[in-house]
Design brief:
Helices cover 53% and strands 12% of the residues. By secondary structure, it is mainly alpha-helical. Helix 2 crosses helix 3. The mean pLDDT is 80.
C-alpha cells in the first residue's frame, strides 16, 4: 500500500518521428490546439475508466491526480491504461484519431451553430 501526502503526474506529448506520425500530430493541432490531449483523455476514460485532466489551454500536457492512498493494483491499472492509450496514438487512424475526429466535428458544429442563450 502506498500512502502519500500528494501525488501529481504530468505527461507532455510532442511530435513524433516519421512523416505519417508528423502529419497525424499536426492535423488535430490545426483544428484546435487542445484537441490531441482531449482525445487521449476521452479514450483513456472510455476504455479504461481512468479520469485525468488537460493541464491547461493550448498545452499538450495531461495531468493525473490519483487518490492519496492507492494500492499496487491501482498503479498497475493506471500504467497499463496509459500504455495502451498512448500506444494507440502511434497508429494513425487508430482509436485516438477516431475520438479526435468526433471531437473536431463537435467543435465545428458548435462554431457554425452557436448555442442561443
Amino acid at each position: 500500500m502506498f500512502d502519500l501526502q500528494a501525488l501529481l503526474i504530468a505527461l507532455e506529448f510532442g511530435p513524433q518521428a516519421g512523416m505519417k506520425l508528423k502529419v497525424g500530430w499536426s492535423l488535430p493541432h490545426k483544428i484546435d490546439t487542445g484537441l490531441f490531449p482531449q482525445a487521449v483523455l476521452a479514450l483513456s476514460f472510455r476504455d479504461h475508466h481512468v479520469l485525468a485532466q488537460v493541464a491547461g489551454y493550448h498545452q499538450d500536457v495531461i495531468k493525473l491526480i490519483p487518490p492519496l492512498v492507492l494500492n499496487e493494483s491501482d498503479v498497475n491499472h493506471i500504467v497499463d491504461a496509459l500504455d495502451s492509450t498512448i500506444g494507440s496514438c502511434r497508429t494513425f487512424s487508430g482509436p485516438v484519431w477516431e475520438v479526435g475526429k468526433r471531437l473536431s466535428q463537435q467543435l465545428f458544429k458548435r462554431r457554425v451553430d452557436p448555442v442561443k442563450v
